[in-house]
Structure formats: C-alpha cells, structure tokens
Design a protein that fits this description.
Keywords: ATP-binding, Nucleotide-binding, Transport. The protein has two domains: 214 residues, 3-Layer(aba) Sandwich (Rossmann fold); 68 residues, Alpha-Beta Plaits. Helices cover 34% and strands 28% of the residues. The chain contains eleven helices and 14 strands. Helix 3 crosses helix 4 and helix 8 packs across helix 11. The structure holds adenosine-5'-triphosphate (ATP).
Length: 308
C-alpha cells in the first residue's frame, strides 16, 4: 500500500530525509517515532505528494508520486500536525464543506458526514461551532475530515499532540479501529509509549535516517541485548546467588531486598536453565520474572541521541 525507495529530501546542506525505505501493507498501523526535527513530517508530505523528493521513489497503492499525484491524493487522507478550522461554521457544516470539495453530492454527503462523526464519537457536537471545540475534539473532527473520501491510506502527523490523557486514549482507540478497517496508517509521534499498543509496526527515525523498522515485539527484542531477571527463593538467597553466579551464561548478580537481579550475558535469550538449576539444588522459587521493556526504553537503547 505504501512503498518508498531511497526517499531523500535535502534543504541546502541539511539532509532532512535520508534514503528511507518503507513497505507497508493493508491494515498496517506504522508508528513513526522520532524526536523533533528528525524528518517525520517531511517523509509524510512526500508520500502525500505535497513535497517533491530530491531523490528516490514513493508509491501509494502501486501508484508513483511522480506520475499519478492526483490519484494518490484521492487515496490518501493527510492530517497535518497543525490545521486551522473556520469561524462561523458548525461541525456538520465544516464536514459538508470538505465533503463537497471531494465531490460527494446530494443526500450521500450528509450521510457520509454523519457516519464519520459517529466513527470519531463526535455526533453529540454536530451542531456546535467548530471554533468552540476543545483541542481533542478539534483533532477528532480533523480525523473525520480526512476520512470523508474513504482513503485507503492515512498519514497522521502527531494526532495526539497537546491532548490530555483521556483524549489520547480516545485517539488510540480510533487508530486501532482504522487498522481493523484495513486502512494503512502512518502515525507520527515523539511520545513513544502511546503508540506501543496500537501499532503493528514501529519505525524509529533519527536525523533523517530510519534506524529501526520492525514489528513492535522485534523492536523490544532488539533493544534488549541483555536480559535482566528478578529471581527470588524462599531462603538462602546468598547461596542461590553464588550458585547462579558460577553459571557460564550469567554475567552479574545483585541482591536487593532478598531478590536476586540476574543479568544474563549478551544475546542469551533462553533462561529456562535458571529455575531448573535452583530447583534441582533444592531451592524453592517464589519469584521469577523478566524485566519489562517499554517502547520508550527501547527508543533510548536503539538511538544515539542525534538530533538535527
Ligand atoms: N522548508 C524547510 N526549509 C528548511 N529546512 C526545513 C524545512 N522543513 C523542514 N526543515 C528541516 O528538516 C528537518 C526535518 O523536519 P521535519 O519537520 O520533517 O521533522 P519532524 O520529525 O516532523 O519534527 P517535529 O516532531 O518537530 O514535527 C528539520 O531539521 C527541519 O528544520
């Protein structure tokens, strides 16, 4: 649905986007994560045909941005990180205005607008003035607007920025729904954890370079070269620690409040030997858990902090 090949954009000496290769299919929700100025918006604008690359290609549903920009605009719903709304218009009038720009006519127009309002849970505000909505409600109307023409592909630039926690959760639920509707979505954010449970894939961009592109689980695994385990035994913790410390695959052990923090050697992923070893030696295991890693930690591990 979305494919880019060596997509590149320069501004003078600055390489804003450097040889980016993406390949996203139907139903993929791609979390595009990177700090401010890393190249997320520039990438999305090129895919949306709003900005020309200096080098490389991008295809949306098999159509090239160079040869079929008009068709791509019909296939894509692009929600910029900042968009204005007009004064003196109700929510429904606002959506109808855009629906008419998409040439949706007659009774169908009202029907489509009402459907999209329902989808973003904003039916209760259909007659409110658009300039009197909260930021979260404005974002949701913005999303309804880009869904009007039933685009197959959605490019959402920081849809959750500036929202309170409740509104963020609502946006997350909406993103999930879009994936279920088999849309292909790129959603950018510099706030990492909010994307972890909605995305099927994650891309991390830094200084214009896509340094990670994988499914969420793989990203977590890559970030975790060394596994840390919390291990507890009912008595003789010191003895158990000495036993584990002598094992080849264990790199380090610390004891904190009777719990052993066991760090395995680099790239050791299978830690089933630990419970067997302890139980065989007569210890009673009362805690055995791997330290969790979230997307934020993964990002810190995987990036080098290079920001333009
Ligand atoms: N029109 C422009 N002229 C010159 N430089 C630009 C222009 N647009 C963007 N840039 C630069 O390109 C780089 C990438 O910008 P971009 O807006 O794509 O980043 P971003 O990841 O979307 O950032 P943010 O999270 O702040 O929205 C930045 O260093 C930015 O200053």
């Amino acid at each position: 649905m979305i494919e880019t090949r060596n997509l590149t954009k320069r501004y003078g000496d600055l390489i804003a986007v450097n040889n980016i290769n993406l390949n996203l299919g139907e139903g993929d929700v791609f979390g595009f994560i990177g700090p401010n100025g890393s190249g997320k918006t520039t990438t999305m604008r090129m895919i949306a045909t709003l900005l020309s690359p200096d080098y490389g290609e991008a295809y949306v549903c098999g159509k090239s941005i160079y040869t079929h920009p008009e068709e791509i605009r019909r296939l894509v719903g692009f929600m910029p990180d900042f968009f204005g709304v007009y004064d003196d218009m109700t929510v429904l009038e606002y959506l109808e205005f855009f629906a008419s720009a998409y040439r949706i006519k007659g009774p169908q127009r009202r029907k489509v607008c009402e459907e999209k309002l329902e989808l973003v849970d904003m039916t209760f505000k259909r007659d409110a003035m658009v300039n009197q909505l909260s930021r979260g409600q404005t974002q949701r109307i913005g999303l309804a607007r880009v869904l009007l023409h039933e685009p197959q592909v959605l490019l959402l630039d920081e849809p959750a920025s500036g929202l309170d926690p409740r509104a963020r959760i609502e946006i997350r639920n909406l993103l999930k729904r879009l994936g279920e509707l088999k849309k292909t979505v790129i959603v950018s954010s510099h706030i990492l954890p909010e994307l972890a449970d909605v995305c099927t894939r994650v891309g991390m961009i830094e200084k214009g370079n896509l340094i990670v592109d994988d499914n969420v689980d793989e990203v977590m695994k890559k970030a975790r070269q060394r596994i840390l385990l919390y291990v507890g035994v009912s008595e003789n913790t010191e003895k158990a620690a000495a036993l584990l410390e002598s094992h080849d695959l264990v790199s380090n052990i610390e004891i904190q409040k009777n719990v052993m923090l066991v760090t395995l050697k680099n790239d050791v992923k299978d830690y089933t030997f630990i419970p067997s070893l302890l139980i065989n030696e007569g210890f009673q295991l009362n805690l055995f858990r791997e330290e969790e890693i979230n997307l934020e930690t993964a990002f810190m591990e995987l990036t080098k902090g290079l920001v333009q």
